């Protein structure tokens, strides 16, 4: 039997380095286990520091790295038409596409390339929506979004992005939403036929720990001066406003000011706000640690050494940070929004209340953080409940099979 070929498209901007990159890596790992059935080509667009296309192969996985345009500085975000056309020509020279092939796109920014694939090949197209654009672009203000969305004369940057996503959905054979709320938006706002739209949660393979991992964890604790009596909060993610990082650090400072001296928070991640945050909280560097970006093999050690994850993001779908914490049995505090619909307050997490303006309630965040510090039984119960939920619903194998089995 001929192997099914999947072309999965990624690019090099920061958002793809984190959540989307993790999603694609999980799919690649599952494809490796199914080498008798699948051949997967991972296409990475806008790779810096290379001058020509690089193609490598190992077993049933091919890695195709495509460079930035010569004049381009930094990482690729948008893929303009001419650059997309050049990418398509490169792909045509390397592969003969057939109707049994599948292209898997992961960003509205890949619109022109998706369109070219649709117009000039007979392949099937999957489009995964990793983020709710209106929530990001309009800062969760639905009324403002829907007003501009219904204005036919509106041709703003925000409007163009959302229209590109709608067009991607219309051209695709299958649209994957990572949450029920995103699926509702695609059906009710984008007006995409229901038979094309599927809700498939992200999945993750459970990580095992070995003795060397625990030795490294102890080394990290020593380097950060974490003592046995210290309680450690952990944040993992990009340092951008939508993740709630400003509210989190403001709340943590309030807790310190109220006499909680044996608490620390480790901020794992990078982003445009990092330098300003490091400067602002320099006087609290004994309690607030910024690690910057870390590779996955190191991040997992921080999940294991922490006592509670706090992730007050206002814009996720099926967060890999959430799934990692669930799989590591690390209790969580998250925002009380539909982006964490999988979790139940006081059962598999604690949820931070929102204000009438759908902003994080600082008093609620403080209360939830203090509850975790004081109640070990609560932490254990929440962690076990979340882990059971992960085992039942969030494996990478289930995600892979659901994504590709019906197309």
TrEMBL record:
Database matches in InterPro entries: Glyco_trans_1, Glyco_trans_4-like_N, Glycosyltransferase_grp1
Domain Glycosyl transferase family, residue spans: 218-387
Superkingdom field: Bacteria
Name listed for the protein in its UniProt record: TIGR04157 family glycosyltransferase
Entry-linked SUPFAM superfamilies: UDP-Glycosyltransferase/glycogen phosphorylase (SSF53756)
Segments forming domain Glycosyltransferase subfamily 4-like N-terminal: 79-205
């Amino acid at each position: 039997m001929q192997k099914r070929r999947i072309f999965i498209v990624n690019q090099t901007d920061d958002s793809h380095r984190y959540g989307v990159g993790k999603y694609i890596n999980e799919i690649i790992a599952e494809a490796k286990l199914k080498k008798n059935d699948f051949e997967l080509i991972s296409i990475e667009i806008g790779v810096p520091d290379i001058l020509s296309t690089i193609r490598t192969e190992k077993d049933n996985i091919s890695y195709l790295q495509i460079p930035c345009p010569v004049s381009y500085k930094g990482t690729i975000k948008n893929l303009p038409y001419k650059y997309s056309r050049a990418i398509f020509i490169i792909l045509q020279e390397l592969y003969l596409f057939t109707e049994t092939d599948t292209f898997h796109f992961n960003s509205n920014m890949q619109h022109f390339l998706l369109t070219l694939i649709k117009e000039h090949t007979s392949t099937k197209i999957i489009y995964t929506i990793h983020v709710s654009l209106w929530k990001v672009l309009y800062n969760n203000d639905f009324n403002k979004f829907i007003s501009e969305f219904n204005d036919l004369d509106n041709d703003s940057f925000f409007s163009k992005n959302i229209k590109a996503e709608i067009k991607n959905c219309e051209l695709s054979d299958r649209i994957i939403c990572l949450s029920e709320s995103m699926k509702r938006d695609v059906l009710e706002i984008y007006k995409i036929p229901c038979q094309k739209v599927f809700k498939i949660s992200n999945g993750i393979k459970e990580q095992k720990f070995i003795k060397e991992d625990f030795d490294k964890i102890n080394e990290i604790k020593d380097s950060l001066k974490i003592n046995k009596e210290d309680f450690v909060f952990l944040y993992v993610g990009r340092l951008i406003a939508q993740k709630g990082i400003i509210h989190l650090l403001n709340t943590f400072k309030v807790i310190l000011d109220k006499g909680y001296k044996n608490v620390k928070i480790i901020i794992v991640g990078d982003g445009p706000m990092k330098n300003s945050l490091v400067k602002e909280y320099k006087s609290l560097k004994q309690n607030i640690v910024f690690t910057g970006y870390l590779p996955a093999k190191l991040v997992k050690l921080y999940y294991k050494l922490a006592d509670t994850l706090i992730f007050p993001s206002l814009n996720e779908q099926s967060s890999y940070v959430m799934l990692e914490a669930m799989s590591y049995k690390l209790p969580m505090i998250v925002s009380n929004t539909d982006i964490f619909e999988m979790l139940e307050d006081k059962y598999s997490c604690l949820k931070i209340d929102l204000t009438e303006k759908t902003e994080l309630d600082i008093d609620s965040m403080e209360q939830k953080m203090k509850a975790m510090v004081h109640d070990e039984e609560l932490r254990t119960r929440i962690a076990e409940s979340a882990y059971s939920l992960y085992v039942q619903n969030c494996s990478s194998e289930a995600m892979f099979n659901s994504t590709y089995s019906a197309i």
